[in-house]
Design goal:
membrane, two-stranded antiparallel ribbon, 480 residues, mainly alpha, 16 helices, globular, symporter activity, AA_transpt_TM, transport
Length: 480
């Protein structure tokens, strides 16, 4: 059956079967994919371990040891389970031999229909664009933190060290304009591997500094229930913070909006869903280990006063060179993560343009350029123009909205439940034709409802934080 399906796809693609057999092209007519378990895991780790890992100490401080650790473990398991469901949706109807779905929205359209396809597209691309803008802000904060660290080291911790983020956002935008010309996910492997190593680097530094503070006797008082209601915090503020912490932890495990696109880079020699499930396990095991250590060591070191970011929030001032190195790692990681999150947006717009203006040389023309004997790439005028405009717009919005991290938290809270839980669960139910009110159906819907309630609570917490940010809103005047 699998062999018959393979021959049918080769026939429909119009390819010479010998070229497919020789490995020049895959069964769908596209150049042979080269991804493997390691490159796929690197893409996932680059996407999932953002600089938000350094805020987990604050999250655990709001929730306490019991709820904080349990929340990290529960959302890790939920994400692994739903990601494996989604991996089976790459091919339809059979997850090993069916027709490929190249994007998340393609999988939703195939399994759930046109209305769900539109809804998924709106949520997914809003989320991806929000991440790109948020990463621009976060990277600039780390760049400013390097300058502030040196300022505090030279002038003392009480010095007034405040610098504008805008020049750093502009510099990052210029770098991303060049990197955005990487044509697609298939060419991002090396950048993702470098970014993944950078995430390990700054996570180890954050954990190491926190661990050193604890073992040296400088750790602060912690409790089983987290930040205590009293003079510094009201019961209402405690509740809002807990909601936000739930949302931050849930969102920290979210990468489903990229999963199908990442899976499409895998070689066809083995069923892609099996390799993807191994990559899910490897990446989430690695991620959860880092999250647990960063969150727990950070809380043990700072107690209720855990900063929102261990490295840019100046939980640590010395050794200043090590803090600077960690922030450099954050910047390099976010440069790569920017491209991982923007590639699906680039692909969607360019696929639409290719269908709309299929005879235009501006849109379709590829012009080979060689620099030396080794560095060769294809230039495309539409790709150059539109991606440059996208980066400029993202940079401008990041500069205009200094409170955009609060908006990003809102986008994350809204996007987590549908993209990580609802659509994978509903597609699995549709593919397997699971009947209503059976035990399996009830179990899946229980996950759906619980995650929806968490997302709703996180949304409320984000809106409350956003209302505070608006009170101090000064466009193009973000300072750290």
């Amino acid at each position: 059956m699998a062999e018959q399906h393979f021959q049918l796809e080769v026939h429909e693609s119009g390819l010479n079967p010998h070229k497919v057999a020789n490995g020049e092209f895959d069964d769908d007519g596209k150049p042979s994919r080269t991804g493997n378990l390691w490159t796929t895991s690197a893409h996932i780790i680059t996407a999932i371990i953002g600089s938000g890992v350094l805020s987990l100490a604050w999250c655990v401080a709001q929730l306490g040891w019991v709820v904080g650790v349990a929340t990290l473990l529960i959302f890790s398991l939920i994400t692994l389970y739903t990601s494996n469901l989604l991996a089976d949706c790459y091919r339809s109807p059979d997850p090993a031999t069916g027709k490929r779905n190249y994007t998340y929205t393609d999988a939703v359209k195939t399994n759930l229909g046109g209305a769900m396809y539109v809804a998924c597209g709106i949520v997914q691309y809003a989320n991806l664009c929000g991440m790109v803008i948020g990463y621009t802000i976060t990277a600039s904060i780390s760049m400013v933190a390097i300058k502030k660290s040196n300022c505090y080291h030279n002038r003392g911790r009480e010095a007034q060290c405040s610098f504008s983020n805008n020049p750093y956002m502009i510099g990052l935008g210029i770098v991303e304009i060049f990197l955005s010309q990487i044509p697609d996910f298939h060419k991002l492997s090396m950048l993702s591997i470098v970014a993944a190593f950078m995430s390990f680097g700054y996570s180890f530094i954050g954990m190491g500094l926190a661990f050193a503070k604890v073992v040296s006797g400088g750790g602060q008082r912690t409790t089983m229930t987290g930040v205590e209601v009293g003079i510094d915090i009201s019961a209402a503020e405690k509740t809002w913070r807990m909601f936000q912490a739930f949302g931050d932890i849930a969102f920290a495990f979210s990468y489903s909006q990229l999963l199908i696109e990442i899976q499409d880079t895998l070689k066809s020699s083995k069923p892609e869903n099996k390799v993807m499930k191994k990559a899910n396990v490897m990446a989430l095991l690695t991620t959860t280990t880092f999250y647990m250590m960063c969150g727990c060591f950070g809380y043990a070191a700072f107690g209720d006063r855990a900063p929102g970011n261990l490295l840019t929030g100046f939980g640590f001032y010395e050794p200043f060179w090590l803090v600077d190195m960690a922030n450099i790692f954050i910047v390099v990681h976010l440069v790569g993560a920017y491209q991982v999150f923007s590639q699906p947006v680039f692909s969607a717009v360019e696929s639409w343009a290719n269908m709309r203006w299929s005879k235009s040389t501006f849109v379709m023309g590829e012009y080979p350029i060689a620099i030396g004997n080794k560095f060769k790439f294809n230039a495309n005028f539409f790709r150059l123009t539109w991606r440059t405009i996208f980066v400029i717009l993202a940079t401008t919005l990041a500069m205009a909205l200094p409170f955009f991290n609060d908006i990003l938290a809102l986008l994350g809270a809204i996007g987590y439940w549908p993209l990580t839980v609802f659509f994978p669960v509903e597609m699995y139910i549709a593919k397997r034709r699971i009947r209503r009110w059976t035990n399996r159906w009830l179990g899946l819907q229980l996950i759906n409802v619980v995650c929806f309630l968490v997302a709703l609570a996180a949304t409320c917490g984000s809106i409350q934080g956003l209302s505070k940010a608006f009170n101090a809103y000064k466009p193009f005047q973000a300072k750290e």
